[in-house]
Amino acid sequence: MKTKTLVTALALTMAGLAMAQPATPNLDKREAKQQQRIDQGVASGQLTAKETNNLQKREAKLAADEAAAKADGTVTPAERRKLQREAHRSSKAIHRQKHDAQTAGK
Question: Could you tell me the CA-to-CA distances from 56 to 35, 40, 62, 106 in Å, in that order?
Answer without folding.
Answer: 8, 13, 10, 21
